[in-house]
């Protein structure tokens, strides 16, 4: 079962507005609030099946060299009512990178495995899961194709 990451334009935009609003009003974020950084985007995975999923692997493809950090959230998002808090960010994060001239994307396998297993656990209680993806080294969201693969 291969479930793709979908860019959530609306939620990304909503979180950017929150950041702009705080800046314009010269206000500070709430204690522990996670504000979306310029290199971060919100993605979602919709679980078409929720039970008896066993994490197999990440399928991350990068069209150019760079690094993407995948942070899962434990929040069941209602963006109009709640803000993302740092305590809602899952550990560990998945870090995937492609070196110049390389064909394959590399990762820290232990962390990626643990994150995948946490996602499989959370899938049992929710139909949608949200992720923050941070792009570095000139990597752009358009250069990413990402899925998470389970044995169903």
Automatic annotation (TrEMBL):
GO terms for biological process: sensory perception of smell; signal transduction. InterPro entries: Olfactory_marker, Olfactory_marker_sf. Pfam families: Olfactory_mark. PANTHER family: OLFACTORY MARKER PROTEIN (PTHR15357). This is OMP protein. The lineage of its organism: Eukaryota, Metazoa, Chordata, Craniata, Vertebrata.
């Amino acid at each position: 079962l291969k479930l793709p990451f979908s860019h959530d334009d609306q939620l990304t935009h909503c979180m950017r507005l929150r950041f702009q609003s705080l800046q314009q009003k010269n206000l500070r974020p709430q204690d522990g609030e996670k504000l979306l950084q310029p290199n971060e985007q919100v993605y979602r995975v919709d679980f078409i099946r929720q039970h008896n999923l066993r994490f197999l692997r990440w399928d991350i493809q990068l069209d150019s060299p760079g690094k993407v950090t995948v942070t899962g959230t434990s929040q069941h998002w209602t963006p109009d009512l709640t803000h993302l808090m740092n305590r809602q960010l899952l550990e560990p994060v998945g870090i995937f990178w492609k070196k110049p001239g390389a064909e394959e994307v590399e990762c820290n396998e232990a962390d990626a495995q643990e994150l995948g297993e946490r996602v499989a656990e959370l899938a049992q209680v929710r139909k949608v899961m949200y992720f923050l993806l941070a792009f570095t080294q000139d990597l752009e969201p358009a250069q990413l194709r990402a899925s998470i693969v389970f044995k169903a």
